[in-house]
Amino acid sequence: MKKLFQKLRFLRPKKYDSAGEHFLHSSNFDMESNGYFGEMEIPSKESDSLRVKVLVSDLYSGDSNPPGFFIFSRNPDTSHETGLYVRLGESEIDMAIFGGPKDNPRPDPLSIVKHAASSIHSEYLVEINCSSIKHDLGEGRFGSEIRMTCMVKHNDKLIYEKYESKISQIDFKHSIIKLVSLKGKVLYN
């Protein structure tokens, strides 16, 4: 019995511990050798939430595209993308909620935040959550909205928290991270 328990414990998925947090999956990436662009699926157990940590060890600023990453849900029927982007400059982090067709998603101007940073080579924890908000419109009328809230922590400090209302539900079970001109590691559950 003891040997069986030890064998089962060995077969369990390994957890990656980063700053006291547990992630089940980890993937290394290097966008210089991949032509500066790359997409990777980051499936979530939950359809209405996503939690991803990006560890940036290097960036390639010689390319015409600014280094950074996009974390989003893509509708397989319409190719519509909705999510968050984080662009990394030499001393500034530029973040925004974006959405639109796959070939031309646009940032929401009201969601753009620029954050001065002393170190770009660091950890970025991104959390995206969707919830249904009900509104009492008075006179027996009620309405609801899908609210997508995005948060970014940079080295454990909250630097971004914005929300945007959406017309339809977003499904994060089949999410994607697009990496641009970066090297490092992605952790996710």
Describe the structure.
The chain is mostly beta strands and 189 residues long. It is built from one helix and 15 strands, in the order αβββββββββββββββ. Strands 4, 6, 7, 8, 9, 10 and 14 form a seven-stranded antiparallel β-sheet that branches. Strands 3-15-5-11-12-13 form a six-stranded antiparallel β-sheet, with no helix packed on it.
Write the layout of secondary structure elements.
Layout: H1 2-11, E1 16-18, E2 21-23, E3 25-30, E4 37-41, E5 49-59, E6 68-74, E7 80-88, E8 92-101, E9 106-107, E10 113-116, E11 123-138, E12 141-154, E13 157-166, E14 175-180, E15 182-188
The run of helices and strands is HEEEEEEEEEEEEEEE
Main sheet record: 7 strands, antiparallel
- The number of E-state strands comes to 15
Give the amount of beta strand, in percent: over 45%
Q: How many whole angstroms does the radius of gyration measure?
A: 19 Å
Overview features:
189 residues; mainly beta; 7-stranded antiparallel β-sheet; 6-stranded antiparallel β-sheet; 15 strands; globular; disordered N terminus
Quick overview:
This protein has one helix at 2-11, and strands at residues 16-18, 21-23, 25-30, 37-41, 49-59, 68-74, 80-88, 92-101, 106-107, 113-116, 123-138, 141-154, 157-166, 175-180, 182-188. With 189 residues, the chain is mainly beta.
